[in-house]
């Protein structure tokens, strides 16, 4: 009973963060249906509260484990959704993309909900935690937070593109930012994610024990896919439309193989 009471506060933080993200999704849905969408302040506020609640959980869990709280697949999903939310708070404010919250919240909510539904059996703690492995794992997930928000920006780009080609644009057309801005945001987030992922690879090679060959191969495939996408774009072999498609496809492919990566890595993603 005492153990359950000790765990209750930070479990409650997950429930609260889920409710905050759900309220953002619900607000956007009602706004779209009533054609009275007013994006911006409310979405930013509730997502900020969701990120704060997740931060509480991650800090508490990390303190209990004396390690980065990404030892189970549910923790990985929570950390990833937290990273996407954090990037949204920065990017949405910097570029004044108010509607990005309406697109980001459903993805964050989906990841958080999956994390809550998955079994949370703990892995045995290692006698000593390698800080380089910790850095490798954390930076990898933060990088995918940037890639995740890039996919959101890419979806917004494709929606706006379709609206511009349509003879009868809907209400959302008036709230979406210009395609040039969405293209620039997507590109910068892809570069940021690629840099962070490259640094995480370097950190993964520094420990005395190397990353497993299969895990490294899968990681290299994802890393190389982003390299190829950025290379083709800057060589003008693909345009903004295909850049957006590749950003979406690569991220969701990586998301689908997360459980495989988790299984291969043993203790860490």
**What is the CA–CA distance across the termini?**
32 Å
| Number of structural domains | 2
* Element order: H for helix, E for strand: HHHHHHHHH
Query: Which radius of gyration do the C-alpha atoms yield?
Result: 19 Å
What do these coordinates show?
With about 270 residues, the protein is mainly alpha-helical. It has two domains: about 10-120; about 130-269. About 75% of the residues lie in helices and about 0% in strands. Helix 1 (about 1-35) packs antiparallel against helix 4 (about 100-115), helix 3 packs across helix 5 and helix 5 (about 130-165) packs antiparallel against helix 6. The longest helix is centred in the middle third of the chain and has 35 residues, at about 130-165.
Map the helices and strands:
Layout: H1 2-34, H2 41-65, H3 73-94, H4 100-117, H5 131-165, H6 179-205, H7 213-234, H8 240-256, H9 258-265
Task: Summarize it.
The protein is mainly alpha-helical and 269 residues long.
Descriptive labels:
9 helices; 2 domains; single chain; 269 residues; mainly alpha; disordered N terminus
